[in-house]
Here is the input.
Amino acid sequence: MSNLVVFDHPLIQHKLSIMRDKNTGVKEFRELLEEIAMLMIYEVTRNLETEEVEVETPICKCKCRKLSGRKLAVVPILRAGLGMVDGVLNMVPAAKVGHIGLYRDPQTLEPVEYYCKLPADSTEREIIVVDPMLATGGSASAAISFIKQRGCTHIRLVNLIAAPEGVKRVQEDHPDVDIFVAGLDSHLNDHGYIVPGLGDAGDRLFGTK
Here is the structure.
């Protein structure tokens, strides 16, 4: 079963509380999302492999640690996931960026991929899928499936807020994918919104409502 990590760091919880407030404006909402993403990725990447290297300081030569092994790629689920990308890149500037877009077919209600562009060497990278909200889990699960279909096998999912229903869906569909969230909320309402949540993250991020 997928490992679920819920971050309880005071800075993350403080910033998330401000984001939940309906009176928080677009500019502040956008800045906070980027900041939380940066704080989260610091912990998400805790188990990345390192190797010993020798460097020469102004004083003498010494042994240090640098990243080794697989490199990273961040893949936002359009459109709200875009708000988390810069936070990740602030911490890992060398990471490459892919994009994946989905819509729900009005007849079958199943997610349909309308856009997917991944780095050419994505199969050799750790893929970090980002999206602020994990509600039903349908979009996240589908996005992960589409990425796996392109040969990627090392995938992590990072969300700002999740509902238990979404976590359960991803865990059942992708038991090999670890999930990292800043907040695990109560449930989904009849309209599929996370309760208490923060509303529509995309609309609040881009000021479209």
Notes: The radius of gyration is 18 Å. The chain is about 35% helix and 30% strand. The mean pLDDT is 94. The first strand starts at residue 4 and ends at 6.
